[in-house]
Amino acid sequence: MGYKGDSRVTIYLFSYNVFVRTNNSKEDLIITDRRWAAYMGPIGVRKMNALMQSGRIEDAMLLQMVSPQDYGIFPLSRNMAIITMSPAYKQHLKGSGTRIIYPPHAPTLSACLGFGSEDTIEPPTNKFLKSGVMVYRYKIKQLVKRDVTFLNSLLLDYANQFFGYANADKVRSSLKEKNIDI
After folding, report:
1. With contact defined as beta carbons under 8 Å apart, do 39 and 173 qualify?
2. Local confidence pLDDT in tens for the 182 residues of the chain
3. In this structure, is residue 137 part of a structural domain?
4. How far apart are the first and last CA of the chain?
């Protein structure tokens, strides 16, 4: 049978991590009582529809490529977060050898994800050491203000009841998007 547990587990198991920061964006991340949020955009919906129509929902390899969410965001502090990307998005990167045709209502990768670019979601580089240990090297990607505002809107949508911030002036745009006064 298909996985029926906590969707955060699926995000962790079948994803790659991207570290992002907001230092230069003039907007901070909001921390909520749920501590995370997930997003399924136009490509995520198409992936799930294709999986359901294939009748192979139990196929673990297929499920890895079509995890229910496109990504999850986990803020670590007011200016840093981990984004867990669906492995299917590796096909959208330069050098993947795959040509992606985006839907008309979301004609770019940024429009499909709601934030970022190919550079933002680049997976870590990795190499094996002689000892057999795998080493992952992450580049911390800088987000722009509209990216942070979008990700904060996801976090606010996922919040149960409470959210926090370090500086009211640095979350004002995000809260204004959601019609929240402080």
Report:
1. no
2. 334 444 444 445 667 899 999 999 999 999 999 999 989 888 777 777 776 676 655 555 555 555 667 899 999 999 999 999 988 788 888 888 888 888 888 898 899 899 998 899 998 888 888 998 989 999 999 999 999 999 999 999 999 899 999 999 999 999 999 999 88
3. yes
4. 46
Token pair for 123: 């997976």
Q: In total, how many domains does the chain have?
A: 1
Q: What is the pTM of this model?
A: 0.82
From CA 110, how far away is CA 169, in angstroms rounded?
Answer: 26
Closest CA to 79 of 14, 10, 17, 147: 147
Residue 176 belongs to some domain of the structure: no
Please check whether residue 29 lies inside any domain of the structure.
yes
Domain membership of residue 117 as a residue range: 7-166
Cα(151)–Cα(157) distance, rounded to whole angstroms? 10
Question: Does residue 178 form part of some domain?
Answer: no
